Amino acid sequence: MFTKNRGYAILRQKDLIEGIWMETYTNNNKKPEITVIIPSYNVEEYIGECLESLKKQTFTDFEVLCVDDGSDDGTVDIIKEYAVSDPRFQYVGMDHCGKAGLMRNEGIKRAKGEYLLFLDSDDFFEPELMEHSLNKIKEDQADVCMYDARLYFGDTGKYRKSNVMQKKEYLPQTMPVEGKSFPYVFNIGTGCPWTSLFKKSLINENKLEFMALSRSNDIYFVNMALVLAKRITMLQEVLVNYRQRSTSLQANNTKTPWDWYEALKAIRDKLKELDLYDAVETSYKNLAFGVSIYNMCSLKAGEAFCQIYERLNNEIFAEFDLGTFTEEECYSYNAAKYQIYMQMKECSAVEYLFRQAQEMKEWQSRAKKAEKELKKLKSSTTLKAGKALLYIPKKLKHMNGKK
């Protein structure tokens, strides 16, 4: 049905897929250069800052598809406010499924742009994100343009540089590079979709989709897009501010502890199906190795940790050709994880946790001892005498300055 609101035509349309609604506040048939796809769910605290940072982009020929997963807070109202005031923003509503991958896939189906950005609703972006990444991808006639991101801590308002969003030591000497020929194709970044601009034809021609997982839905999509890309280019520029919050899916990974495993299996199987596995074997091994140990170590529940630890040791390392993974094969960014891997081969999960507890206890003991020594030093006669001696030249300098 059509209604009128603030001078814009509103089309509210029930899709062929049950539970999908779309509202657009203009009859906009023009094809923009970039489609931005944003999944959202109960992010009323952050979505305004996210959309405002897109509104302030130095590049203007884009559309934003906000695919909402049945939010029951004020998220939808905020999205609709932007859609009413700016026809580039659109609201797409879904029945709640809890799977960002399905929301992103819905966005891909509806996207009109030649290029796709997959951004998150709780992050915000530098004004040059679209302009600089689009210029670079066109300049190098590439299928993918990768760029850097930094961490943002909302409770303090502080930013922190990240060494994993774009691993500088793996940057190619010349660009662009072919995905399957690049030795670090799976290792240059984190596998997050929001650190790359993708050419839509690459996605359509290879029928790429995000996996229907609660977590790790993007690992398959991003890595398969990279290995299938004929030309990848990169910007050493921070264009995304990645918000850190305790209620994120990553922070609550105990609820779905095996999603990463399903994603890694899907990549391996597809590589073998396309006869690409041998070309990228070392890169894939390092991806599987890093993702496996990272997800195990990030768990907050002991029972889930032990389950993954034992299954990695007994099954999964061998399944991913990591049973005899050597230090020579291990890329530098996985060096710390390799030490964990070696310990895992020596002991059970309980023994490993006991060792970690002992090391923590020793560290705390050393920290307390150092704290006592510091207090003792601060109260010592020697320190007080030193301060007094320093005070004399300072005082003389001050008096001399007055003269």
UniProtKB/TrEMBL annotation:
The keyword Zinc-finger does not apply. GO terms for molecular function: transferase activity. Residues 353-380 form a coiled coil. Keywords: Coiled coil, Transferase. Residues 35-200 form the Glycosyltransferase 2-like domain. Gene3D superfamilies: Spore Coat Polysaccharide Biosynthesis Protein SpsA, Chain A. SUPFAM superfamilies: Nucleotide-diphospho-sugar transferases (SSF53448). CDD domains: Glyco_tranf_GTA_type (cd00761). This is Glycosyltransferases involved in cell wall biogenesis. It comes from Blautia obeum A2-162. The lineage of its organism: Bacteria, Bacillati, Bacillota, Clostridia, Lachnospirales.
